[in-house]
Specification:
Layout: H1 2-13, H2 20-70, E1 80-86, E2 89-101, E3 106-107, E4 116-127, E5 136-144, E6 156-163, E7 174-179, E8 202-208, E9 211-218, E10 222-224, E11 240-245, E12 250-259, E13 261-268, E14 284-289, E15 292-298, E16 303-305, E17 312-316, E18 341-342, E19 352-356, E20 358-363, E21 372-376, E22 393-396, E23 404-409, E24 412-418, E25 423-425, E26 428-430, E27 435-436, E28 446-448, E29 453-455
Parallel strand pairs: 6-12, 13-19
Antiparallel strand pairs: 1-2, 2-3, 2-4, 4-5, 6-8, 7-9, 9-11, 10-12, 13-16, 14-15, 14-17, 17-18, 20-23, 21-22, 21-24, 24-27, 24-29, 25-26, 28-29
Length: 461
């Protein structure tokens, strides 16, 4: 009995309990185990959610393929993009349809040379992973053959492709096809309905007799880029081209056609864009892009041009016959000082396209005639002026006498003369000998001599 009492007393005296360190260690181990379990559950839910989303995307892609396969008009199966919401998730559905010719070439309209054989339809479905990773997508494609031959044996097909400046299709352009005005070579009236271009910019004429045909397109407010064979080099609102149709083959008419850019050509000195000047009686501007010129267009009027993304270079006058007017033609070791290219959509949100010119201040004697005639003349050797292949002339009228007046002229070498060669006044012919204008003020870019003045673009703007 005493032994048992002693043992109990000893156990009671040495019972210290659980320390705080042991509690913290236990809680840490529990937290690690709980975090692992939670991550496992989250991963399982994410995989389940991703698998379900992928199944929905595959179903949407299959639906698109099935619609193409059951379509009674493959010409109506075209490119398209839509967004479909399923179970709170937005799926972006992109359909791409390309005709494939018997030659194996595939493009938007199918202008591969041989008969149109089948259509390749590709579906791409993409959706956001909702912050749990990168966007996901699935793709599916199929070849769909028409239920019967597109064109009857012995006849041909005309494919019309109309593209915008960015390469996308121009939808809604009205297409006209008729036997060629010259040398139709057996062509006959097109009996099938020629639809307006679809979403991919395509239109088709089926069962066309072999021969030569004129193809034209129209759409309000649109203009072509000047490459259509019927109007080569000249941008037009009604472009046309001629194609030859062979039996059991396709003929392609391709055009670049887009909403026209409206511009208002102007003259202006890059060094003094706000300075007023007296203009000649006629002013023109040519819009240059690479090697092609559009115009000349009269200053003070608006015109429409193809909206090339890199814009146009505005040049005063007709640079094709007078190279002096284009600053890029001048020779200089340090390069041209005047920036020649204007942006596609011109000055400060307006339609203004300014051709660079030089302002010149002159003073006519009080006993002179208030008119000045400026004629382009041969440049001084080694002046850097490329000169004019064809003489250019500008007339200034109603100028003040005995006081400075600022006029504007294109770059180059000019002879300024004051006076009329012949005036018929009340039946009396009077002759006034033109005299060289000597009251020309020298300035940056303006170098007058005894009988001419050099207007040089190679100065700091």
């Amino acid at each position: 009995m005493l032994r048992l009492t002693a043992l109990l007393r000893d156990a009671r005296e040495h019972d210290d309990g659980v320390s705080i360190v042991e509690v913290l260690v236990a809680m840490t181990v529990f937290a690690m185990i709980a975090a692992g379990v939670a991550m496992g559950i989250a991963s399982s839910l994410y995989l389940t959610h991703g698998s379900r989303s992928r199944e929905v995307a595959i179903g949407l892609a299959q639906d698109g393929i099935d619609r193409a396969r059951t379509s009674t008009n493959l010409f109506g199966v075209v490119d398209g993009t839509s967004v479909q919401r399923v179970a709170g998730i937005d799926y972006r559905v992109v359909q791409t349809a390309r005709w494939v010719a018997s030659s194996g070439t595939a493009n938007a309209c199918g202008s591969g040379g041989g008969p149109l054989a089948y259509k390749r339809v590709a579906m791409t479905i993409s959706w956001s992973a909702g912050g749990r990773g990168a966007d996901q997508s699935v793709a599916m494609n199929s070849m769909v053959a028409p239920t019967s031959a597109v064109t009857a044996a012995g006849l041909g097909t005309i494919i019309v492709s109309v593209s915008r400046v960015d390469g996308s299709g121009n939808q809604g352009a009205v297409v006209s096809i008729a036997p060629a005005a010259t040398n139709p070579d057996g062509a006959g009236p097109v009996t099938s309905t020629v639809p307006a271009t679809d979403a991919t910019g395509c239109s088709y004429a089926l069962n066309v007799k072999p021969g030569r045909y004129d193809v034209s397109v129209t759409k309000p407010g649109n203009i072509d880029d000047g490459t259509s064979s019927g109007s080569l080099g000249a941008q037009t609102a009604t472009p046309s081209t001629t194609v030859r149709v062979s039996a059991n083959q396709t003929a392609a008419a391709n055009m670049n056609y887009d909403t026209a850019l409206t511009v208002a050509p102007q003259w202006g000195d890059p060094t003094a864009p706000t300075t007023a000047f007296t203009a000649p009686t006629t002013m023109t501007v040519t819009l240059r892009r690479k090697t092609a010129d559009q115009g000349p267009f009269a200053v003070g009027t608006t015109t429409q041009v193809f909206p090339f993304t890199d814009g146009y270079k505005a040049v005063a006058g007709v640079p094709a016959t007078c190279a002096s007017t284009d600053p890029e033609n001048w020779t200089t070791a340090s390069g041209t000082a005047v920036a020649p290219r204007s942006p596609g959509q011109p000055v400060a949100g307006t339609n203004a396209v300014r051709a660079p010119v030089q302002l010149v201040t002159i003073t006519l004697p009080t006993n002179s005639v208030n008119e000045v005639l400026a004629n382009s003349v041969a440049p001084v050797p080694n002046s850097g002026d490329p000169g004019c292949a064809k003489g250019t002339q500008y007339r200034f009228t109603k100028l003040p006498l005995g006081q400075p007046v600022t006029i504007a002229l294109p770059y180059g070498t000019w002879s300024l003369q004051s006076g009329r060669t012949a005036v018929n006044l009340l039946g009396i012919i009077t002759i006034t000998t033109p005299t060289t204008v000597t009251g020309i003020q020298a300035a940056p870019g303006v170098a007058p001599t005894a009988d001419r003045v050099l207007l040089d673009p190679r100065r700091a703007p």
